[in-house]
Every structure is written in structure tokens, then in C-alpha cells.
Design goal:
Length: 333
């Protein structure tokens, strides 16, 4: 099957294919949508998310850049200020750090600095996380840095359907969005996608599994781990509710509070290190606003406070047993 025909004829999509489909739909619908990044043209990106797009839209809209992340993010900011809607790809989110200043000091601040006169409608999309034996420079989960920057929105899909809808919503958003794609599940799961463009609204979580005993609040690839744990705990008579945040900033406080009020027990689950991790924000919010519903401690499951190890990747990554222990800890309190 020709590359350009995939989005028309295929109903079951991997996450990479869903991302590609979103880019195609938005580039067809809006001539101001442009892509830029290292090797995204003829190569199609390191994970082939932009495969064939340079043939469809030309080199003026699918721009191969030098190996210079500060330049990529800086150019995207300038494009957005002049009316384009750039989607900048960073090969691995670990490599976004050289462009950090342009993102957090410029893109995130310009609406505030200009008293609303200028928006920066740009997306920085990048694979993140472990599970593919990428080592310490290709496996990081740095979402906490970006969530703590006012002016940035941070989005993390957990499945192909959401990946397409959230990416389209991000491209159409008037403000900068960091779109983090869990590469561990890039090709390991599939979803049926409707034909054509659709949006999954930013800032709205999903209850991916109903339960009454404990709420597991998570995002990205860890949603699948939470669902696997929920199935494993059925034999113990424990009904686990799984909340997929989908958007980390702004996050869906209403869905979180409703779930906590129902279950009275909370486990937060993230792949990133524990100290200063994003799940600490969720735990603090629940403690501040729903303490009267809690019947046990909020228990965090996370990566360890070390650089991401290559040889010990499985020991670093959260697993079913660690999530089970966390659930039992809060339930047995």
C-alpha cells in the first residue's frame, strides 16, 4: 500500500500512524500548518511519523532542519508570531533541553508579555519515556519541567485514538503545546479511528475503567500498566478505577475529585522520577481539596531518583507488582 493511501483505507491505526494522520488532516485543512525538525523530510523522522509528507506537501511545509534544537524551537516561535501554525518535532524529548530557553522564556511568556496581543500557536511534539532500551539519553520523562512553566500546555496521549484527536486540538490551540508521545506504545497497540479530522478536547481526563475501591491516576504508557494491574486485582475482589489524565496542564480537576469521592483511595502512577514529579502535584491537589474523602494515604508509584539506566531498565520502570503493592498499602491502612 502506498504511504499516502494509509490514512484513507486503514481503520486500525498504531499511535505513529495516528499522529501522521492528524498531521495530514491538519495540513490539508490549513495551509498555515508547517512542520520542522531534524530528518522529518525524506527520512520521515526517526520513528517515521512524517513519512511521505514532504512528497505530499513540499519542502516549504515539511522542513528538514540542522541538528540545532534551539534553532528549531526559536524558528517555530517566530513562525507562530507571524501567523503560521508550526509543529516542531524533536527526535527524542531528551534533546529538547538545548531549546528549553526558547520554549519557556519566549513561547510560554509572549501572550503575557504582550498583554494578549500576540499568541504563539505552536506544537512541540516528541517521543518520551523508556521501555525501548534507549538508555539515559533517549528514555527520559521530563514533563514536570514543562508543566511547571505558566503559559505552556502539556499533553500526553495513551492510545492512537486520543493521539490523533489531542494532536489536532493542540495544533488548533492558540497557545504553545508540548505534545509528549510515549514511544513504548508507538506500535504495540492499535485503535480504530473515524475517517477525517476530529478533536479530543484538551484539559479533559478519561475514566478508562470504572471501579469503586481505589483510583489509579496516570497518563501515557502507564495507563496500560494501570489497566493491566486492575485486571490482575479482580481476583482479589478489588475494583480499580483508572483515570487517564491525557492533559497534564491544564488538568481535569473535576474528574479527579469525582473519582476520589467515589473510591476514597488514590494511587498515582508515573514513569518519571519521584522527587519533584508531576504526580506530586496531583497528590497535593487531592490532599488540599478532597481530604475528607480519603480513607488511606495517597501512594505514589514512579521511576527511581536516578538517571535512566540502560542495563536495569526493567528494574527502573514501574510494573504490575509495584502498583499492586501501592494499592494494597492504601486499602489496608
Amino acid at each position: 500500500m502506498a504511504t499516502a493511501e494509509v490514512t484513507k483505507k486503514q481503520t486500525q491505526f498504531t499511535m505513529v500512524q495516528a499522529v501522521r494522520s492528524a498531521l495530514i488532516d491538519e495540513m490539508k485543512a490549513d495551509a498555515d500548518v508547517v512542520l520542522l525538525g531534524e530528518d522529518i523530510g525524506a527520512r520521515g523522522g526517526v520513528f517515521l511519523a512524517t513519512e511521505g509528507l514532504i512528497d505530499m506537501f513540499g519542502k516549504d511545509r515539511v522542513i528538514d532542519t540542522p541538528l540545532a534544537e534551539a534553532g528549531i524551537i526559536g524558528a517555530a516561535v517566530g513562525m507562530a508570531l507571524y501567523g503560521l501554525r508550526p509543529v516542531a518535532e524533536i527526535q527524542f524529548i531528551d534533546f529538547l533541553y538545548p531549546g528549553f530557553d526558547m520554549l519557556v522564556s519566549e513561547a510560554a511568556k509572549l501572550r503575557y508579555r504582550s498583554a494578549g496581543q500576540f499568541g504563539v500557536p505552536m506544537v512541540v511534539r516528541s517521543p518520551y519515556g523508556g521501555g525501548v532500551r534507549g538508555g539515559s539519553y533517549h528514555s527520559q520523562s521530563p514533563e514536570a519541567y514543562y508543566v511547571s512553566t505558566p503559559g505552556l500546555k502539556v499533553v500526553v496521549p495513551s492510545n492512537p485514538y486520543d493521539a490523533k484527536g489531542l494532536l489536532i486540538a493542540s495544533i488548533r490551540d492558540p497557545d504553545p503545546v508540548v505534545f509528549m508521545e510515549p514511544k513504548k506504545i508507538y506500535r504495540s497497540i492499535k485503535s480504530e479511528l473515524p475517517e477525517g479530522a476530529y478533536e479530543v478536547p484538551l484539559g479533559k481526563a478519561a475514566v478508562t475503567r470504572e471501579g469503586k475501591h481505589v483510583s489509579v491516576i496516570t497518563y501515557g504508557a502507564m495507563v496500560l500498566l494501570a489497566l493491566e494491574t486492575a485486571t490482575a486485582m479482580e481476583s482479589d475482589g478489588v475494583q480499580v478505577e483508572v483515570i487517564d489524565l491525557r492533559t497534564l496542564q491544564p488538568y481535569d480537576t473535576e474528574t479527579i475529585l469525582k473519582s476520589v469521592a467515589k473510591t476514597g483511595h488514590v494511587v498515582t502512577l508515573q514513569e518519571a522520577p519521584r522527587i519533584g514529579g508531576y504526580s506530586g502535584e496531583i497528590a497535593a491537589f487531592i490532599a488540599e481539596h478532597a481530604i475528607e474523602h480519603l480513607e488511606g494515604p495517597i501512594v505514589r508509584v514512579s521511576g527511581w531518583d536516578t538517571p535512566f539506566p540502560y542495563a536495569l531498565e526493567k528494574a527502573y520502570m514501574p510494573n504490575v507488582e509495584r502498583v499492586r503493592r501501592a494499592i494494597k498499602k492504601t486499602l489496608d491502612f
